Amino acid sequence: MMSSLSSQTSALLASLDIPEGYYTQGTRVVTSPLTGEEIARVAEVTSQDATTRIGASVTAFQAWRQVPAPRRGELVRLLGEELRAGKKTLGQLVSLEAGKSPSEGLGEVQEMIDICDFAVGLSRQLYGLTIPSERPDHRLTEQWHPMGPIGIISAFNFPVAVWCWNAALALVCGDPVIWKPSEKTPLTALATQALFLRAAARFGDAPADLSTVLIGGRAIGELLADDARVPVISATGSTRMGRWVGERVARRFGRSILELGGNNASIVTPSADLDLTLRAVAFSAMGTAGQRCTTLRRLLVHSSVYDQLVSKLVNVYRTISVSNPLEGNALVGPLIDEAAFTAMQTSLEAARAAGGTIHGGERENVNGAGSFYVRPALVEMTSQTGPVLEETFAPILYVMKYDTLADAIALQNDVPQGLSSSIFSTDIRDIELFLSSRGSDCGIANVNMGPSGAEIGGAFGGEKETGGGRESGSDAWKGYMRRQTNAINYGRTLPLAQGVKFDI
Ligand code: UN1
């Protein structure tokens, strides 16, 4: 007897023309965090299959790199159209498989559509420079060439958008993509691949195997990271995973784009608009049940506004709706699994031992034993220590008091991670100091909003243990291409650079 969620899942997958065998026959059991019920079983690739399919991706590359970039953009335009048409279906699947609210599920697909639009325009703007040469009758230029297959290792929390940030850029840059999705979210990957294949069929003459999905565990990720035929590996997930992937890729001189853990802070200054701050903190700390790499994890509040803001926050934490977001309007859905719940409790224990005062954090009995819903936790700390220095992928917000902005910035930067940050202020001096070279050391620094919820137009990523990679907008496309410098002599003599003489 199929559970109601699995029949819902089947109906969604069937509406994307995905054959039933793809998600009913296999060894990997997929459960929904909403209820803990099994919703599908998918087949995994063997190492041998994966190796063969990487070879097929290389063949696709040889054809695709010859297709003019604006024409490659047409494929991504069609992908964007398929995503528009399939937005509701894919969004619902994201909710079922990752536990996101309907609005966040749809938002994730919108993020895919946005990056497709961006990449289409980009397909006519993969510019190189012309550089003045020091030699007469010489020209110096640079151009950008396709790299080869791009390996994409993604996490459960943005099960499809992260693929698209990478894939939309890679495809216009002339690169096929090979995707190893999170073991926890293979269904949304299969659905995304189905939409891609529809776009490719409409495109007409796209080479086969431009997009490959490898469903599997760590061994498949390892194989991808080790394969020198895959020049770029873009990996999103924990710092532990990224260190392991980054080291393997570096060993073979591959390029990695790492988007790893965050331990994002916001600074609330005395001039902050506290109503706006309250809403921004609530969204960025509790949205997606605290399971974004950009989630607000540390709140640094000026002592003059601490009591006022924190008392309001405690109230919001006490009353925010925690439930199955598909059955009501709950703002906070489930954690992904039991391991996430255990990690959260371990961090809360450590915070208590370090002198923290904890509000919330208890398990909520929503859907029985198989699902893990928790009341988000607000933890008042007197110092930045122990679990505050780590990323726990759960809704825990550590709150600390500060007296000078210099102290707050020092605290904000004094963690191993460097993804995102923000300041709440209406004082231009405070804002500009925070954004200056003496300010936030993160890849993202926002003003009067939380650290999460980035748009695709900017480059996305961070420093230190966040891995240093940049994805998505701005010139992140350069990570998917190889730069070639060309010096061209159009004269009849051979002047050497730096005035070197070599007359034979
Ligand atoms: C992630 O959590 O891995 O900025 C990505 C955000 C989203 C992306 C998060 N646009 O919160």
Description of the molecule:
- By secondary structure, this protein is an alpha/beta fold.
- It is 39% helix and 19% strand.
- It is built from 15 helices and 23 strands.
- A seven-stranded mixed β-sheet has the order 12-15-16-11-10-18-19, with helices on both faces. It has a five-stranded parallel β-sheet with strand order 7-6-5-8-9, with helices on both faces. Strands 3-4-23 form a three-stranded antiparallel β-sheet, with no helix packed on it.
- Strand 5, helix 7 (161-172) and strand 6 (177-180) form a beta-alpha-beta unit.
- Helix 5 (87-98) packs across helix 6 (102-122) and helix 6 packs parallel to helix 7.
- The radius of gyration is 24 Å and the shape is globular.
- The structure holds 2-aminohexanedioic acid.
- The site of 2-aminohexanedioic acid (UN1) has 11 residues, from loops.
Q: Give me the secondary-structure category.
A: alpha/beta
Enumerate the distinct ligands: 2-aminohexanedioic acid
Ranges where pLDDT stays below 50 over 5 or more residues in a row are none
For the largest beta-sheet, the strand count, sense and barrel status come to:
7 strands, mixed
CA radius of gyration is 24 Å
- Indicate the mean pLDDT: 97
Report the end-to-end length measured between terminal Cα atoms: 87 Å
Give the overall form. Answer: globular
Biggest β-sheet: strands ordered side by side in the sheet: 12-15-16-11-10-18-19
Count of helical regions: 15
Query: Strand-residue fraction?
Result: 15-25%
Estimate percent helicity.
25-40%
Organism: Gluconobacter potus
Pfam families: Aldedh
Active site: 259
Protein name: aldehyde dehydrogenase (NAD(+))
